[in-house]
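call fold(seq) -> tokens
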Amino acid sequence: MAQVPDETSPKKVRRIRWQFSAAAVLLAVLLAGIVATLQLAELAREEIRREGEAVISTLGVYLNSEIDKMEKAASTLSDSPWIPPALIGGTTPDIERATAVLKRYQKVFGISVAYLMNREGLVVASSNRDAPDSFVGENYSFRPYFMEAVQGKVGLYFALGVTSARKGFFASAPVADAAGRIIGCVALKSELQSIETHLRHYPLSFFVSPEGIVFLSGRKDFVLKSLWPVEKKEADRLLASRQFGTRPFEAVLRQEVNNGDEIDFEGERYAVWRSHAQIGKWSIVLFSHAHRINLYRLVGITGTLFLELLLLSVVAVLYFTDRTARLLEESERRFRELSITDGLTGLFNLRHFYACLDAEVARSRRYGHPLSILLMDIDDFKQYNDRYGHMEGDHVLENLADTIRRCIRRTDVAFRYGGEEFIVLTPETGKRQAAVTAERIRNDFRQRPLQPNGRTPVFKTVSIGIAEYKEGEDPRDFVARADEYMFRAKRAGKNRISAPEPAEAEERKR
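ret:
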């Protein structure tokens, strides 16, 4: 399609390039700033992670060493030759010797109490035999550590003491007779005071059960609460077992936390570190202040904003420097558009038609491609104008312009040729193909109702002449042939297309 040469194109291209470049630089700085901010935050998170894991590792060492100590002590105690007689014979001397052994283990290993139970779970000897809260005579057959021991396993269990109501870690081991039959078990309890001492150095540290119950913590007000919500069925089971007492478990957080999470807690931002202990699915949880992450992020954001503002100020200077020139160019462009556009129909005008025609004819000569034009005239337009007035006549012209726009291809160009005449340039198109486009326009226009002054619908028609460019032909002669064919259509009865072949004139009536 022929186009009007745009004298400002190079300037527009340069302007677009520098605007694109400026936007690209701003975007690049922004993306670099985002990456740098994320990396700084990740650096802070990594520092906090290393510190948090070091703390968790230290607490884990203390806890696991206590578990190992208790497990080994229980296994060693169950092998003592002074223990089975107290369960087999049950005489006073046997009980006293067993009690002496239990007291010695309690003292040597620094534990709270050591005791001996028969196969029914009844305590027959205990290191605290003479204390007011002596275990002797108590039955702990419902405790999981007892059940595991009588099945030949070492039992490990964190719970509140049934008798003392104090927190403790229980370790048990089976006791067998000479024939290898399990006749009872020994049990040790540690109140984990050394572990609690270490936890106090880290107030937001927790030793939690698989269900989320805080068993030990650097803050006493969290002990025996749930760190995250416990399902009702699970809570009912725990309350029935009395493992953690009989009070409901108040949740500290809204949901379970995992290693690497970040949470808001008591108005502060914390990073969460969680590591599983060597017993069951118990875990050590630590909350570390995350203010360093926010500080590092702030550094990255501030730096990015500073660079962005600096670049934006440069872009603003360039933009406002260029603005006056762009406004002037825009005014020139609009004036130029007005000079080549028909004010009524919005199509290109006659002046622009000849510029496009010359360009398309030159291209057709250069490449040998076909070129056709459609010249059309509204039938009986003068009578319509005289009858209904110029304003209604203008509506007819606008209607035909609309029809042409809808019916031509994107490569075709439409013009108002003058008065009620219109012309369409169809590059790369022979006469037969141009006739298809012409037929679309003719048929569409004759079916469009017009209602002059709101009266009964009126239908108008158009006559169209089609000419195909001949090699070496002058462009004005080319147009004159189309004009002649259009008048032939008029003389042949109007509302038709005239496109004579070279050998023989041929008209088609619709």
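The chain has two domains: 58-291, 350-509.
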